[in-house]
## 1
Amino acid sequence: MAYKLTVKNLSYAYHSMEGETLALKELSFHVENGEFFSVIGPSGCGKSTLLSLLCGLLTAENGEILIDGEPVHEHRSSIGYMFQRDHLLEWRTIQANASLGLEIQKKLNDKSKKELSEMLTAYGLGGFQDAKPSELSGGMRQRAALIRTLALKPDLLLLDEPFSVLDYQTRLSVCDDISSIIRSTGKTAILITHDLSEAISMADRILVLTKRPGTIRALMKISFPPEYDTPLKRRNAPDFAGYFQKLWEYLREGD
């Protein structure tokens, strides 16, 4: 059975008049169906470049990217991308913002409208369909952005530091909410983050990249007892500090 995502010997370089800058070098890893996978590494190590390659915005110079065993360019419509900022349009209501992707792909019909309303209700925005983005908290806006992404029914979710613009307290709460939503849908997710605690609290496995050019420093499996089943609970688990220390050592080894 094919993995949801397979990356083989992936390399990528940026080219300019000054020459070539190698961003990623010979990455090979896989992500299983339904897995929550996180990627961490020093600033500038190529984390966001990796996401751009995975969703087909960039084309790999060497290596290959497979989704369900087939090349990524054949599966772009099955990939959802959640950015650092919510990019909600102020002149549209929350319901209209959440339906934007469906409109663009000409998939907005009676059935999808009903499903969208159910999602808004299920994820705590049921009373805010007609509100404008400026009337919502940062956490609620991020939930609306996630619903906009999930409405297209992607098989694979790419999350590019989606909580980085939130204040710390809101960030903890929204991290908990969005992790629970993604896991309840059974989606495969890849989270890019510079926050070690965030990665440990959300992921099943964590890929650690070296400084540029990004290569694989380590791949760590994260496992907590069943009672620590949310990001907030994981942060209070006895094993949390040990995972944090080990990841910190991996990152320091690359300095």
## 2
Amino acid sequence: MEGNENLGTTHPGKYLADKLREQSMSRKELAIRTGFSEKHVSTVINGQKNISPSFAKKLEYALKIPASDWLNRQNEYDSALLDYEEKNNISSDELAILKPLKDILDYMNQFQLLPKTLSEPEKILELRKLLRISSLSVISKIPYDAAYRAQISNNVAVDAYVLYAWQCLCERLAEKVPIDSTLDKSLLRDKLSKIKSLMFAEANVMQKQLKEIFAECGIAFCIVKHFRGAPVQGFIKHTERGQLILCMTIRQARADIFWFTLFHEIAHVLNNDADERFVDFSSVKTEIEARADEFARDILLDKNAYKNFLNTDDFSESAVKKFAANQNVLPCIVTGRLQSDGIIGWDCLSSTLLYYKWPET
């Protein structure tokens, strides 16, 4: 583990790693010699666990370094850490906020947005920079749009800290998308047929081409992992450069849900539903959401053609596939619509469904 230079000292786990190298001893061997698990040894070396008096005594036997030496190093580090926390005004409230953020912080590590080997105070300081706030505790005071308030009134579990961190994650990932154009909604309308045709491409190819098409229209498009506490299906935000961020989650892997949600979010863009930023919750039902739903339904399946299909009263697999071919969509699009409209049960025509598996942005 790398120590924090601002502390003026390092976690004793680094000293332990150095001594193991000097004595040509593996972590596994140290675990056997001390009677502690190899996982325990690794967490100490990585600075994620402190050296306890009992472990210090076992290290004295195994490495011939007095227990007092290990404990002194731990005390020195703990003292420096306390001074560091006080100096940077890190409160116990901020430290507590890290717990619900654990999963999203791990995800940020994958994109090198947040270093892995940080102590909790160090994480807070890095998060303040990443989230652009002076203290994690102010997150719950940041105002949200009407959709957020409606979501809360629906008694759906929303964690303000996770939701805010997720939005910031979307923004950071969108910054990596190369875009030269400003938002062009007319061009986006012209691209709707091309976007729709991509549902027949492989998932990874489709995602790449979607990014390219949206970039032409001045939109940074990303598919971002969803997290417990942030039950959203989309996020839209205007940038200072006249461009737009459009992020989607895949809360369910079904292709029909993905395509409906994608055109639902496009509707929000075309309908000017996001003045500055817009958090789209699937559980919120408003006139704005109903309008976006109608747009998505009609883009995927022609309204009159679908009505005529319902009048046939034939919803067999062959009929569904034939109608899907007529509409130039995947069969799962028709199945999903029939299920959503209550025409057939959610367990019907499962063989026509398609599930996506791809890495998020």
## 3
Amino acid sequence: MNRAKRHRWLSICLAALAVLSLASCGGGNSKNLVPREEEEKRTVNLFSPMEKIYPDAENVARTASDLTVAMAEEALGMTMVYRTYTAENYQDKTYDEVCLDRARNNMDDLYLLNPDTILALGAEGRLEDLSGLDSAKNLREIILTANTVDGKLVAIPQEVVAYGLFVNKDLFDQYKLDLPETPEEFLECCRVFQENGIGTPVGANRWWLETFVLAQAYADLYNGGNTQAEIKALNSGEARYSDYMRPGFEFLQTLIDRGYIDAEKALASEAIEAEGPDFLAGKTPIVMAYWGAANTETAYGKTDFNMEVIGFPSSRGQMPVMPMTGWAVCSGGEHAQDAMKMLDAITSDEALQLYSETNQVISPSKNVKVECVPALKPLNDRIEEGVYVLGSNAGMNVEQWGNTCRIVRLLLGGATVDECMAAFDELQDAALNNP
């Protein structure tokens, strides 16, 4: 599932929601237990992106998400029932398409949603307002900004996913290069690497190059003290998304023209699968990935060289890019009120502390702090300083993460920068004509 690969933190969040207690109480007088169980049983139906045919099979160890769900089930006397996306069942439909269809037909109570789906369903009024939950009072401002639609907080994640540049610090040291802060410094590093025999300094795939664009497009918008006014101007049409996006697309075109990125290979490559081997072998000095890739040995958690994770080059220096997923409650769900209570429990500070410590991730709660691996410290320091760009923002009337990724792929396929900007203009005009 391409969307699931592009947003790996979705599968991190729910990859093993499996070993759950669905058995009867056992023991005691069965004549009394059965009617009492039927009377008191409360369930919440969750639709998730877990690609497993038998989600309740006891074939996976408990993960952080399992533990928080079990905690909530015990505290509330409820049971989470899993209805999961599988490629076998939905063949030609993406996870997002299926979520939209199910939520619009009130088929489930709780969903884990990607940014574009949060925006669409929130704008349609199909998601509950979560701002009254106790857990919402503890959220970082970044969560409130990213997941508020029409004044309503419609989604809360269990972790904040940050994207950064994964760099081979040993190669930078070998060629006496400082880690780049600006687009110009990044291009100079690539030039030096190429002149020293590294033909393609940047390992890329067809999903994550939008991080370069977003960092340059919105560095000032999110860090210049005028965020809401700038977003208002974009939503009204007074400002154009294409004007923000152009410098980032021109930067990518320069990377392609100079051979610093192999556009043809990137367009056909899945995340990590293509660029990962050369990066781990010390042949490629720079790749881009999400926070969790530094924690797992199946990605970049175990390297034979000194690795650091930094922000993307921007006018304001190294810039983390942070898209948002989130748990959301379907307003028309059969058990919507119980789902609200379940969500409040699994996003409480107690549950998020357990989740964050287990997965070594950034918590959405401002009260929960977790030590990160040394490689992530440069990226984490910027985030803790409040320096970042949102890769998704439900307050913008044009969805950012998915659309930017799609239009970047047009550039990789040979479209001009002007043609890409025209695509953004079409999206904005469509949004303005359908308020």
